[in-house]
Task: structure prediction
Amino acid sequence: MPAYEDIRIGDSASFTKTVSESDVYTFAGVTGDLNPAHIDEEYAKGTLFKGRIAHGVLGAGFISAVLGTKLPGPGTIYLSQELKFKAPVRFGETVTATCKVIEKVDAKRRLTLETKVVKHDGTTVIEGMAVVMLPEKGQ
Result:
């Protein structure tokens, strides 16, 4: 994990994942979100999306993966997240979550990051802002 003092405005990190049917079913089971738009193909064919789509919050979880493992990394404390869901993700699509530092608050060891999830074709799926806090050195 980079030290807070080494993080600069403009620093960014990403996580890429191909969303599988198994990912969606596991997420549905863990969270209890059994919305048929995600797990029932026959139902989903009759929706706006004409087929099953991944949970939007599953994509937001990829943002959490960046924050907790890459930038800032282990020990990061997630304080808030604003999300705007812009497009669906279908099974088999690859997405990349990217977090970019846009503000530092030294007195509180907080970072504000622009967060975005984009499909392999360039379509923005999620955009928003996160605020995180880094622990003191040695914690």
